[in-house]
UniProtKB/TrEMBL annotation:
Binding site for ATP: D129, G130, N131, G132, R133, L134, S135, R136
Active site, UniProt feature: H125
Highest taxon listed in the record's lineage: Eukaryota
Domain Fido: 48-187
Record keywords: ATP-binding, Nucleotide-binding
Descriptive protein name: Fido domain-containing protein
Amino acid sequence: MIRQFIKHQDTWEADLNNLTPKHKLARRQVIQHYIVLKDVFDRKYAPLSVEQIKNWHRTLMKEIIPNSGDYRKDGCMAGMKIFPEPTLVSEMMDSLVKQYNLFDRNHFSPYAVAAWLSHAFVSIHPFSDGNGRLSRLLGNYVMFSYGFPYPTPISNVKRAYMKALRLADRDYSNGRDTSHLAFIFLENSNMVFSNYLANKNLTQEFK
């Protein structure tokens, strides 16, 4: 699907008209996720900004939800967790971005920073939908900025990922313990490298 998009990227939206609504949505989600992931990689060394996060969300959720890229105007909750009131979102996002850009990278591992940013963002839950997807993309933004060449998948360990989020939520008042989430980033990035090194064609690349 992605190869087809790359070949016909100027007409991919028109091509969706030939699909059923269900398949159209699925393909749109995959392609728009790829577009954002590529942009995240291209901007990995640029300072993070609120406007950039909004732009990524706008692309990620285009024609999937109304008002993509705009902060939510309603309260929301997931399970027993109640997210901040909409009136607080803008200020909290400004603070989050400022704090991230002030991080001293020499004193924190990429896994710790990726876990912190990902969880802090999803805890604010600034948009009406797509927060989880974008939080994981932000985690990859951090990993890329530290020089990791490949995306770090998280969705393939969904149960462990959700548990790590709950554990971080539990210690929120004490500054949030995101060590479990950091370990998931570590474990999955190692898995990506292991899969690459296990590639039977790898020896051909170095000849």
